[in-house]
Amino acid sequence: MTAPLRSLALLLAAAAGPSIAGCSSAPSPQAPQAPEQPLPASVASQPDMILALVTGLRADRLGLPEAEASFLAALEPTGGLRFTNAYAQSASASMSLGSLLTGLYPAAIPLCSAEADSSLAGGAQPKAWCATLPDDRYTLPEVLGLYGYRTALIAGGMPQAALLAGEFQHAVVLDGTRHEGLERQLANEAAAWWQANVDAPRLLVLVLPSGGWRPDDPRLEGLSKDDLRGISSAEQQLAIDAYTQAAGRLGARLRQTLRDLGSGDSGRQQLVVTSSLHGLSLLEPQGFNDEAVDPFDHNVLLDRTLRVPLVFTGSAAPQGFTEADQVVELADLFPTMARLAGATPPAALHGEDLLALGEDADPQAWAYAELGDMLMVRRGSHMLLFRTFLHDRSSLDPELDTLLAESTPGMEPFWTMHDVLFDPGQQRDLVPERPPELSQLRGLMLAVRQGPGAVPPEYLDPQKVWELRMTRIQSYW
Q1: Which of 121, 182, 301, 307 is the most buried if burial means most Cβ atoms within 10 Å?
Q2: The pTM is what?
């Protein structure tokens, strides 16, 4: 196991001070993320890497294969490694992508999910100060660029990706909703860059437009969360079938795009990592404290909006086809891909090399996510959700940590806990029933917010806090 902070006991000890054996020289979560100088590396041994991302594709539920299975069947992966409990670090696509590229939790970057067209009270700024990555946060493409990689971002249907374009040597971000012309243009842009850079190892981050999840069926038009209590099983099946079919079409488009890149074969090994930046709530009425959520929604933290497919394929991936059920995070992709490239990632990353996981995988591994006034931790089969109902607040707001420290489980509506393996719909709140598990997960959430998920104190001066509270935040409201 390569992640020294993944178990609760070690995290609590690390939060208490720098006396842990082997961790005394580790920088704080707020320290600048300077990577070490590049070591000599054989270019021939560095694999080409493709990170293929979509949005809104959730992982299949226990015993109910749906969209993920359809997506993978159309993708036709040959061998590799699939993680069945992989979590995005936010239900916001831009926050999730920023967390993935930095290997840090969103608040530690710090990064918020401010709406792209929001404006501050009394000002004319187009976006919040926390909508872009700070200069001292080194990203995966920046680090790999130090080791001879050519890097590119090709994205469609996700205009917020433009905020991250400067992290890459080459970037094309196409706006617009999903349509055949946009998909073809993206594929052409990716193939042209891939073939033009065959003389060096390459990192391509490809974000495919995955709109069209809402079923095109008059029986499901105009649904609101108030309608979901009376929805029939037949209507729900309509939505599930449409979602599954759309996932299959998306997998087929990605398969063809990856095949188009094959004409730029460099002779190197290749790693393809496929995932989604967040999941989707699909006509399920359950939310926090049995509260309904919107019919086709991802702006609330739930297992179905955070647990996503994660598959490693290609000649640089483990051969055969195996599944791993350890809880992992998309933030783990930075250290995983950096080490495969022979690069030394920034020292303050708390993630682990997913390709190095074996029989010693940590059963205490956790996943953490945040969005607005909502926080989530999952460990084992249990998921704990914390929500303050501070409308339109950012997870960077210091009031969130105050309420987290002062509130106790049982104070409605702050806490709910679920066994997501046996209750994937999160219909049963276990807060009153399982005090030991609740206490452990609450301690973990507090430790994360004080450690690897802490907001750097220099970003919490009064002016920045005021700006946060004056900026509309993408959340449940």
Answers
A1: 307
A2: 0.89
Q: Phi/psi zone of residue 148: left (φ > 0), alpha (ψ -120 to 50 degrees), beta?
A: left
Q: Tokens for 461, please give them.
A: 């001066």
For the record, the structure tokens of 50 come out as: 């493709």
Quick one: pLDDT at residue 27? Answer: 32
Residue 48 pairs in a beta bridge with 270
What value does the mean pLDDT take over residues 296-301?
A: 85
Q: What three-state secondary structure class fits 177?
A: coil
Dihedral over Cα of 151, 166, 329, 95: its sign: negative
Q: Output DSSP code: residue 229.
A: G
Tell me which residue of 192, 158, 164, 40 sits closest to 100, measured CA to CA: 164
Find out whether 208 and 156 touch, Cβ atoms under 8 Å. Answer: yes
User: Over the stretch 190-231, which tens digit does the pLDDT of each residue have?
Assistant: 999 999 999 999 999 999 988 678 777 777 777 777 777 778
Buried b (16+ CB within 10 A) or exposed e, 29-58: bbeebebeeeeeeeeeebbbbbbbbbbbbb
* Residue of 380 and 20 predicted with greater confidence: 380
Average pLDDT over residues 296-315: 92
Cα–Cα distance for residue pair 196/184, rounded to 1 Å: 18
DSSP type of residue 427? -
Of the candidates 175, 311, 308, which has an alpha carbon nearest to the alpha carbon of residue 254? 311
Name 391's Cβ contacts closer than 8 Å, sequence gap at least 6. Answer: 373, 475, 477
Comparing 357 with 290, the larger pLDDT belongs to 357
Spatial distance between the Cα atoms of 236 and 238, rounded to a whole number of angstroms:
5
Per-residue pLDDT band for 115 (boundaries 50, 70, 90) equals low
Q: What is the DSSP string of 139-178?
A: -HHHHHHHTT-EEEEEEES-GGGGGGGGGSSEEEEE-S--
End-to-end CA distance of the chain: 40
Average pLDDT over residues 260-272: 85
